[in-house]
Amino acid sequence: MQALIDLLITRDRAQRIRLSQTLLALLVMVISVAVMQFYVSSGLVHGLYGRLWALVTALGCLSFYVAIRLGWTRRLNDPALTAVQTVFAVTSSAVAYALGGPARGGVFPALMLIMMFGLFSLNPRTMRVIVVYAVVVHAAAMVLMVNLRPFEYRIAVEIGHFVMMASMLAMVSLLSVRIGVLRQRWSQQRTELAQALLRVREGSTRDELTGLINKRHMQELMEQEHQRCIRSGQTFCLAVLDIDNFKPINEVHGYDVGDAVLRTVADEALRQVRASDVLSRWGEDGFVLMLADTRVVLARGGLERLHEKVGSLRILHGPQALGVTLSTGLAEHHAGENVVQTLARAERALAEARSQGRGHVAVST
Description:
7 strands; 2 domains; two-stranded antiparallel sheet; 12 helices; alpha+beta
């Protein structure tokens, strides 16, 4: 059974929705064809015309299903061909009205069902155009039959039918506007919810002040890199970077200036490191940089260039411009040790760099 379902509507989620709607519309038209054949057998509808209508209607609906099932419509703005199918069904309804004779009143419920398919799928503007088309084409069928068969299609009855049909379709048009407003509101709410969820996810992995990866997420990434290196035999480096004399900056100039210093240093560091490197905020005045697939010699050269760029920064504070420097401890991961041990060696190297003065890079052996 599942194989048959997959054959009819595929396993693709979007295609399933389109094909399910098309098959439902096809079912409605099959019922309409069956009703028309009942009218033919009852003598209410001319046999040749009724059968011809049934054949064209059935082939048209089947053609829509085949085109969608084979994926011919995927690149169209309306891959489900909803507007085209609705126009086809409305046209078929108008022809059925002209053929229906004494049974023509049965067309109106079918017409409303046709419009319901478009109501929940098409935008209000397209729906209004289809409503106008439906009114015009059914009115044309009424006028034509009043002239061809005036004794059966009496003008007074047709006026009543037209007023009833036009009123129903006007309600459909109004409903389409209302549904369009609700659809737009739901879309906006979904967008806002998605943005809120993104902010929550970002908040759980990012430092709010600098926008860098936070310590917890960095620990996860370092462990992932460690496992990757075990499998590949490659290595990585960890660098612990601290802003020199950061505490006096907060005490003398205030925390707003301290925050500005952190953001400026973080932005400059991001510009200088490779896309494959990962920079995170690690403490009040510190950062950790993970350099993937890198030996210590290359890593040190990159860090010294970073020191030079940061040292040339000037952070405006009123009439003054503050300069900052970094001290950095660097360690290359050794086979057999874990991330905590590599990081501990980098922190010991940082202590050595600080002992040498400001702006130094020290490497752990």
